Amino acid sequence: MFAVVQLFWNIAVFRDGPENAPSHPYFIVLLIALQTVLTTFTQLFGPGAMSESSGLNGIQLLPTYGALAVTALMTWGALRLGGLHRRFYQTFAAMTGVDLVLGILMLLVLQLTGNVLVAIPFLLWSLAASGFILHRAMSVDMTRAVGIALLIAIASYSISSALAT
What we know:
single chain, mainly alpha
């Protein structure tokens, strides 16, 4: 397990690419389950956390699943346009795994500082890492890849926000 976390960390710091991520569909199911756990912890313990009276009944997972679905569909579409759809599992696993690693790190820093503004560098880092992953997966220049990652992030946020209301 440590090797997988280390792989995602290395991708997040631009040392490794998505081509080394596991490509099995069940691995993506595991990453989505871990994303569910991270979302639950964030809503329970993050800044502006729910009140104790709402408990687990107030946790909203639909925005997370909506964002993951949009990310998956747009990533697959971008790869498909380039004829590289066979790289989808590894690319989506890398994007989800890096988001998990950075999300856990961001939650820890938020707990230590209590200041939500520290999330901004992590969001920018996540965008850059997603761009790097797409750069390697699609064999396009970094500027174009970050642009695609930004479009995916905006669409994911829009769907997530719509589902949260």
